[in-house]
Here is the input.
Amino acid sequence: MSNMMELTGFDLDEPERPALSPELALLEKRYNLAAARWFPKGTNVKVTLHEENGEVLMDIKGVPVDQVHVLVDVLTRPLPGTPDALGPQLPLPIRPS
Here is the structure.
């Protein structure tokens, strides 16, 4: 299988992530920019958005326990970028995973 992986460049064991709408892709990028701006250098926080049953969900990975207060701060601050790019922003539901 490693030869196949070398040829395709994809890990066949990992399911392909469905494409986001341009609006959600931009929102995901803005959340990641906010995380990169406020977390200490070297902290690898990753925000991903996906749609499930007609609802947009957010997954957040890589937040050190002693930096949860920074995550709360990031999520309550205005996102970087121009707010007009997305129009009015609606809060996304955040559920513990």
User: Anything to note?
Assistant: Strands lie at 46-52, 55-61. The radius of gyration is 16 Å. Residues 19-97 form one domain.
